[in-house]
Amino acid sequence: MAARLASSSKRLSSFLISSKVTPFCRAYSSTNIVGESPILVRDFIHSALYDPEHGYFSQRSASVGQLDSSIKFNQLQGRKAYMKYLDAIYKRSDISWFTPVELFKPWYAHGIAEAIMRTANFSVPLKIYEIGGGSGTCAKGVMDYIKLNAPTRVYDNMTYVSVEISPTLAKKQLETVGEVDSHLAKFSVECRDAADPNEWGHEEQPCWVIMLEVLDNLPHDLIYSKDQVSSWMEVWVQKTRDGQELSELYKPLEDPLITSCMEILDISKDGSTRGSMAGSFAKNIWAKIFPSPRKCWLPTGSLKLLQVLHGALPKMSLIASDFSYLPDVRIPGERAPLVSSKKDGKSSDLNSYLDAKGEADIFFPTDFWLLERIDHHCSVKLKPRDISSKKGKKRRTLTLDTSSFMEEFGLPTKTRTKDGYNPMLDDFKNTKFYLSVPTHNTK
């Protein structure tokens, strides 16, 4: 996720909304992503972000920000001093971004470890998977905490597996975790795509899966309707006739991942909504007088990943953290993304996801209500009408604001400044934690 950091206090709110800062990368024509045949929007986004040579994360994977030491919050006077300190860090460091787990190390990871320890089944060896582990700061912090606070046998028998798509970051994670010799025997990195079902085995033992700021960069699909009552259509991306630009192409709904996501979200394919006949008639009249096109972004990447995880790890417990909303989104549609690039030290938002090139990040807000529905659906293949009830559910789920999560599981006094200001609690109001654990429901 692209961040916007500036020394001016007027830019403070922008920084607080996004936690990563990105350098300018060489441009790569987005038309090269699309061949002679159209592709689904999710495939376009996946290539724009993860193409091995020209994707956004491939170009910047070697520049993940990592603090030399933890910030001593208790020595800072307050908010102004904290922002000045951050500004100095960015100015002297040729880095791309800092995540919350890095800014608040080790306390952020310690809160996650405490949440795991309170719920984990210690009758079997503790096994943790982390997807998209960045520089390894979370892994090291979690393992440090378990070593110091869990029974000795828990740490001695634990395993921690990082599933990382970037070879550069995989190497960095080994270096970070390797700062503690005893961790290395318990830690491993599997350099692969976590959403590829062929790369997973099948594990029946309980385990934990951690995903920090992963959901926001998972590919999404887009559906379109020309007005309020017309049927929804899939959106594809194609080259224009001259091959120099990209445009959208609308096709009838056929893709199974899109239709499955619509069913979970309870979106009717024909564009109709539930209600009285009088209400539907009035809506039809209104649509004819004031036709308005509709667009809706669907988290099909999250659906695919959770399908894979539940299939491979049926007894997994999940802890995920991400942004619940994003401000100043220019791109149309419900759950629309921000597309942001940075050049010459200045961030700029693009007006279209089709303009995304090698230097542009595409990141989405996470609809945690929908995430919960997807999680329940994937765990037991619930029908949409059963997701809202307790019928057949195999998961206990909880969504918490970051401040509530850290007050419950963390040590917020460690990130408090002298005047009581606490950036971990006060500055990330648009982030949430999602916890999901299996139940013993066999009905």
From TrEMBL:
Reaction catalysis annotation: L-arginyl-[protein] + 2 S-adenosyl-L-methionine = N(omega),N(omega)'-dimethyl-L-arginyl-[protein] + 2 S-adenosyl-L-homocysteine + 2 H(+)
Biological process terms in GO annotation: methylation
Subcellular location as annotated: Mitochondrion
Keywords: Methyltransferase, Mitochondrion, Transferase
GO cellular component: mitochondrion
Enzyme class: transferase
InterPro entries recorded: NDUFAF7 (IPR003788), NDUFAF7_sf (IPR038375), SAM-dependent_MTases_sf (IPR029063)
Broad class of where this protein is predominantly found: mitochondrion
Signal peptide region: none
Function: Arginine methyltransferase involved in the assembly or stability of mitochondrial NADH:ubiquinone oxidoreductase complex (complex I).
Similarity comment: family membership: Belongs to the NDUFAF7 family.
UniProt protein name: Protein arginine methyltransferase NDUFAF7
Taxonomic source organism: Erythranthe guttata
